């Protein structure tokens, strides 16, 4: 195995992102089942949240597909390549569910149709099961490989690509999503390149954005 010299690469930011995805996907099915048939006021709130969630997950996986997996396949020996290929196949399964969800979600958001909502709730429950399986495997099997095979600069480059290509709309909310249950030390590193006054102000803004959003969607600031 081709390994980097010096200390292991710090991959903890991935665990912080995964905490957000686990939390919100776990709650998604219940949100959908809680919307009454025809209640379009509520369906627009829930639908916008779930659209944000699906786009965030798709973006996260797309960056890994383009940046992380090819680089790892160059570094790991042949006998470890199946771990990377497992990640790829799990992404395909998750992406298929996201695609089906995305085809149904706009119509349900506009109509709050009960049958469509029930189908979406089942899809999100299924997505949660497969997503947790993937995230657990990534943390247990893939990230230790990345920590040994990639330099910190290479790892950080993936984060730079993700930030550069992420939609600007909802940026504060996304950071607030990561911040809520994430490791405070890791979150501090995520905003560590910002100027001093911004680093002081940003956690307050992101926390406020998350709490406002969570109260509207989940009915609590601590979902």
UniProtKB/TrEMBL annotation:
Top-level taxon in the UniProt lineage: Bacteria
Segments forming domain Hemerythrin-like: 19-146
Family annotation (Pfam families): Hemerythrin
InterPro entries: Hemerythrin-like
CDD domains in the record: Hr-like
Name assigned to this protein: Hemerythrin domain-containing protein
